[in-house]
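Sequence in, structure out. Go.
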Amino acid sequence: MSNKSVAGILAIPDVGEAFELTLAGDTDSETRTQKFKLVQFVNSEMHWEELVCKLEAEGPIPEGRWMEAFRIKYPQADGNGPIGITDSSGSWHDPKHPNFFPHDYDEGLPWSPSLVWADAPFNDDWRWIVGVNENIAT
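Output:
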Protein backbone atom coordinates (compact mmCIF):
# COMPACT_ATOMS: atom_id res chain seq x y z
CA MET A 1 0.00 0.00 0.00
CA SER A 2 1.38 3.40 -0.96
CA ASN A 3 1.78 6.01 1.73
CA LYS A 4 0.86 9.65 1.07
CA SER A 5 2.17 12.86 2.61
CA VAL A 6 -0.26 14.80 4.75
CA ALA A 7 -0.03 18.56 5.31
CA GLY A 8 3.66 18.78 4.44
CA ILE A 9 4.69 15.80 6.60
CA LEU A 10 6.75 13.22 4.73
CA ALA A 11 5.06 9.89 4.19
CA ILE A 12 6.79 6.79 5.49
CA PRO A 13 8.48 5.01 2.58
CA ASP A 14 6.96 1.83 1.19
CA VAL A 15 8.63 -1.48 2.02
CA GLY A 16 11.72 -1.89 -0.18
CA GLU A 17 11.91 1.80 -1.14
CA ALA A 18 15.28 3.44 -0.35
CA PHE A 19 15.28 6.55 1.84
CA GLU A 20 17.94 8.72 3.45
CA LEU A 21 18.38 9.52 7.12
CA THR A 22 20.79 11.97 8.68
CA LEU A 23 22.27 11.45 12.11
CA ALA A 24 23.50 14.73 13.57
CA GLY A 25 26.76 14.80 15.45
CA ASP A 26 28.31 17.38 17.73
CA THR A 27 30.10 18.92 14.74
CA ASP A 28 29.39 19.05 11.00
CA SER A 29 32.19 16.54 10.43
CA GLU A 30 30.37 14.04 12.67
CA THR A 31 27.06 14.32 10.78
CA ARG A 32 26.30 11.16 8.79
CA THR A 33 23.75 10.52 6.06
CA GLN A 34 22.97 6.97 5.02
CA LYS A 35 20.46 5.12 2.88
CA PHE A 36 18.04 2.63 4.39
CA LYS A 37 14.99 0.64 3.43
CA LEU A 38 12.10 -0.97 5.25
CA VAL A 39 11.83 -4.76 5.19
CA GLN A 40 8.74 -6.75 6.08
CA PHE A 41 8.31 -10.53 6.16
CA VAL A 42 4.75 -11.42 5.15
CA ASN A 43 2.92 -14.47 6.55
CA SER A 44 5.58 -15.24 9.10
CA GLU A 45 6.27 -15.21 12.80
CA MET A 46 9.90 -15.31 13.86
CA HIS A 47 11.96 -15.28 16.99
CA TRP A 48 14.90 -12.93 17.45
CA GLU A 49 17.75 -15.08 16.07
CA GLU A 50 15.88 -16.03 12.89
CA LEU A 51 14.70 -12.44 12.39
CA VAL A 52 18.19 -10.96 12.74
CA CYS A 53 19.62 -13.55 10.34
CA LYS A 54 16.99 -12.76 7.69
CA LEU A 55 17.45 -9.01 8.13
CA GLU A 56 21.25 -9.27 7.82
CA ALA A 57 20.67 -10.95 4.43
CA GLU A 58 18.65 -7.85 3.40
CA GLY A 59 21.26 -5.29 4.47
CA PRO A 60 23.40 -4.14 7.37
CA ILE A 61 21.66 -3.67 10.73
CA PRO A 62 21.99 -0.01 11.77
CA GLU A 63 22.72 1.22 15.27
CA GLY A 64 19.61 1.82 17.35
CA ARG A 65 20.18 5.57 17.44
CA TRP A 66 19.08 5.74 13.78
CA MET A 67 15.55 5.19 15.10
CA GLU A 68 15.55 8.78 16.39
CA ALA A 69 16.66 10.05 12.95
CA PHE A 70 13.76 8.09 11.42
CA ARG A 71 11.30 9.58 13.93
CA ILE A 72 12.52 13.12 13.18
CA LYS A 73 12.20 12.71 9.41
CA TYR A 74 8.90 10.79 9.54
CA PRO A 75 7.10 12.14 12.64
CA GLN A 76 3.63 10.86 11.68
CA ALA A 77 2.73 7.20 12.19
CA ASP A 78 0.94 5.63 9.23
CA GLY A 79 -1.18 3.03 11.02
CA ASN A 80 0.55 0.16 9.20
CA GLY A 81 2.32 -1.33 12.22
CA PRO A 82 5.47 -0.84 14.26
CA ILE A 83 8.91 -0.09 12.82
CA GLY A 84 12.06 -1.30 14.55
CA ILE A 85 15.82 -1.72 14.35
CA THR A 86 17.20 -5.05 15.57
CA ASP A 87 20.14 -3.49 17.40
CA SER A 88 20.12 -4.90 20.92
CA SER A 89 23.79 -4.13 21.50
CA GLY A 90 23.13 -1.68 24.30
CA SER A 91 25.61 0.73 22.70
CA TRP A 92 22.90 3.36 22.24
CA HIS A 93 20.87 2.94 25.43
CA ASP A 94 21.15 1.72 29.01
CA PRO A 95 23.57 -1.24 28.95
CA LYS A 96 21.62 -2.76 31.85
CA HIS A 97 18.93 -3.68 29.27
CA PRO A 98 20.83 -5.45 26.47
CA ASN A 99 17.87 -7.60 25.41
CA PHE A 100 15.79 -4.64 24.29
CA PHE A 101 15.77 -2.87 20.93
CA PRO A 102 14.36 0.49 19.75
CA HIS A 103 11.11 0.80 17.87
CA ASP A 104 8.29 3.20 17.08
CA TYR A 105 4.79 1.95 17.66
CA ASP A 106 1.88 3.52 15.78
CA GLU A 107 -0.55 3.29 18.67
CA GLY A 108 -1.26 6.97 18.22
CA LEU A 109 -0.10 9.94 16.26
CA PRO A 110 2.73 10.83 16.38
CA TRP A 111 4.90 7.76 16.98
CA SER A 112 5.16 6.21 20.42
CA PRO A 113 8.89 5.44 20.82
CA SER A 114 9.84 2.64 23.18
CA LEU A 115 12.04 -0.37 23.75
CA VAL A 116 10.81 -3.91 23.06
CA TRP A 117 12.04 -7.13 24.59
CA ALA A 118 13.97 -9.13 21.99
CA ASP A 119 12.78 -12.53 23.23
CA ALA A 120 9.20 -12.09 22.02
CA PRO A 121 8.04 -13.56 18.66
CA PHE A 122 7.54 -10.99 15.89
CA ASN A 123 4.67 -11.26 13.42
CA ASP A 124 4.26 -9.78 9.95
CA ASP A 125 2.91 -6.45 11.27
CA TRP A 126 6.50 -5.38 11.89
CA ARG A 127 8.61 -3.38 9.46
CA TRP A 128 12.37 -3.25 10.00
CA ILE A 129 14.98 -0.67 9.06
CA VAL A 130 18.12 -2.01 7.34
CA GLY A 131 20.93 -0.33 5.43
CA VAL A 132 21.25 -0.49 1.66
CA ASN A 133 25.08 -0.68 1.54
CA GLU A 134 25.35 2.76 0.00
CA ASN A 135 26.52 5.68 2.11
CA ILE A 136 25.97 9.22 0.89
CA ALA A 137 28.65 11.90 1.15
CA THR A 138 27.71 14.81 3.41
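Check: The longest helix spans residues 48-58. The beta strands are 19-23, 32-39, 83-84, 100-105, 112-117, 127-136.
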